[in-house]
Amino acid sequence: MIDPKDIVYLAIGLALFGLSSIPLACGKRFISVPTMYVAAGALLALTPFAVPMPDPLDGYLSLRVVEHATELIVIIALAAAGLAVDRQAGGAEWQHSWALLGLTMPLTIIGIYVLGTWTGLSVGAALLLAASLAPTDPVLARSVAVEGPNEGDEDDVRVSLTTEAGLNDGLAFPFVWLAIGVAEFAGDGLFDSLAGVAQDWLLMDVLWRIAAAVGIGWCIGLLSGKFVTSKYGDMENDGENAGLVFLGTTFLAYGVTEAAEGYGFLAVFIAARAGRANTRGTENDDYVRKPHVFGDQAEKVLLGILLVWLGTFAASGVLEGLTWREVALALAVVFMLRPVAGYLSLLCTRGTHFQRLAIAFFGIRGMGSFFYVAFGLATAESGAFGDPEPIWRITVITVLISIVVHGALAPLAMARVDRERASQKTPATS
């Protein structure tokens, strides 16, 4: 008789080995590696060899397992994204990112909230769903992200989506906390609940938590960068411990910030940017490749496992009660709310029509959404959000649609972006 443990090792081994094909597969049209992994997980769940996977609807312990598993991959992805971008932050250099953060994200949250109440969700549950589905995912957005540090001239599309994912996964947290506060306050409607929690939310969840994340993240990243390049740091070992440096800096920034009740996600990205700034333009700049490679590999390991989990979770029956309104909401997020809000926000930014359209459209949803839903449900008082099943159903179907659609179209879109950039650089001939 086959031991289920052996199936687990077999599935994980195949998943990890298959990830080595990502660079080749991502260059092929309409081939989405994440889609294949989700499908494999779903097929595995329907076979006699199905193995137990954490189901966040099974109880508090399983909910926490999903929360912390998705938390870990988001942390790793944010740190890798922070190291990957060569372009320094600034008003002009990151103009698309600021527009996406300042306009697109709030508009998307409002739109999802309205549609969430239309599907029958409570005020608090609709806010939690909106906060969870609004951010561009730093994990699954890798297909439209910059390749890595010192890879040459960067285009606006990849830089914008990478930096947006790095920043908005931290900035979504104020709205998750707002959802928790509103759900627990249980006032008469949205505005009554907002009035009851507004002061504490603004002072603590917006001002303090963001300020703590930026301050702590920058200090830890700067100090870590200085130590690494000192005579006692990893530079003296030719980068042999780059993986330890990556994990040490990332976890330190996250842990200290969370202990100070700041936003750890935002701090991790800021720490990576501060560490990168410490070496940029110096003889030590090539070192950043080594910790980034480690972070990229660690992210792939976690991604392969979590995509298989998503497939099994989706096939386990969570979608059985799916309604047409919930499907309509998911489709609206992918095809209407994010693209329209994004394009309107980018009207006054530089770039071609297609480049702005690509930035607006590829707001990929993924593992970060699962984390926020799990965190909100686990942190709020029991039953504050009502029945959690509709929240999970909508989140799962939205992420699945995003994985399939964005995964298939990303190679085509990025190829056109590259062609446009190449044609702009080619001098006209008479």
From TrEMBL:
Organism: Aurantiacibacter sediminis
Key words of the record: Antiport, Ion transport, Membrane, Transmembrane, Transmembrane helix, Transport
Topology of this chain in the membrane: Multi-pass membrane protein
Membrane-spanning parts: 6-26, 33-53, 65-85, 97-130, 171-194, 206-224, 244-272, 301-322, 328-346, 358-379, 391-415
Principal location class: membrane
Residues covered by the Cation/H+ exchanger transmembrane domain: 24-409
Region forming the signal peptide: none
Protein name per UniProt: Cation:proton antiporter
Lineage, highest ranks first: Bacteria, Pseudomonadati, Pseudomonadota, Alphaproteobacteria, Sphingomonadales
Subcellular location per the Swiss-Prot or TrEMBL entry: Cell membrane
